[in-house]
Amino acid sequence: MEKYLISNPQKAYDLGVKIYNDNDLEDNFRIRLLFSLLNVGNQTQKFTEAIHYGTEGLSLAEKSNNTVSQIKFLGVLGNIYQSLQVNDKAKYYLNKAEDILKKTKLPAKEQHMRGNILYLKGMNYAYTLDCDMALEYFDQAISEYQSAKDGLSQINIKLAYLNKAHCLIEMNDLNDAENYLDLSKVNPAEINSSLGIPKIYSDILNQSADLGFAKILTLRNNFSGSNEILFSILKLKNQEGVSDIDADIYFQLSKNFLKLEDIEKNKYYSTLYLQKLDEKNKIQIKILNNLLLQDQKNADQKIQQQNSKIVKWSIALFILFGAVVGFLTLTFLKIKKTNDSIQNQLYGSES
Fold first, then answer.
1. Which SUPFAM superfamilies would you find in this protein's record (predicted)?
2. What is the pTM for the complete model shown?
């Protein structure tokens, strides 16, 4: 299953579910399986299922006092809620992970996890348009990745560069933004090299960086140059099907053609943008509804468990009350019998 996580995520997911359903695993293996299911569920956008496996894994990691696994689960769960734009839940999981990190000395091979949490915290602020705070966290994450040196950190540092650049674009700091976009791009020598950056990730990084360059050209009023880059991204997307930024591209094209006073193309790309946005919103609403239903189911189970506890305590209290009443009754009868005996003795001696 783990072998196919990158090369064939759907196959990895199917194998993971089979293992999950067919085996009674020891805790450490179960935590490992649940984390893989969380990851691949996130990767294949099966968010409801991913959250189910993730919360189960987090609970098991907490019971096992496995702090490293707790941080991993909290980070990915925070990332999923962030992608669904449920910012409060994302912040809850990421803050919890950051709190654990402050109290935990990570093994050297897991040092990149600190960078991951700091990066995701930066993304949380970027999503809520607080770019000043986002940049602080991106810089901290970059520093952690630079010292980690492992292959995964070399991918993640480029993500930090990329999203720092997009924040700088929002702040109109275009020269610095260009510098970080250059740093985020993957050159051919880095693909499947000792750095271990798979081609599918390099394509996504490079297309997202090119989108950033197109935005900069728009801000510099070079609308034709911006369009040229945007159309090249769409061409790659049609060839390889790896781009997940269609809506952003259509929005930028619509904006550019409006500036170029080509109203027909402006309307065309505006329509495509709204269609993409509608598709994403429908998917997001469906996922959030599923999560709400799951939350309600969990709440109902808790209420049922609580009611069961109440019934048990009621029975226990009833038994206790019965025992107390029985004891008081026996005591009362004993006292009454003693009183009767004393009265008989008194009255008997008087007579």
1. TPR-like (SSF48452)
2. 0.77
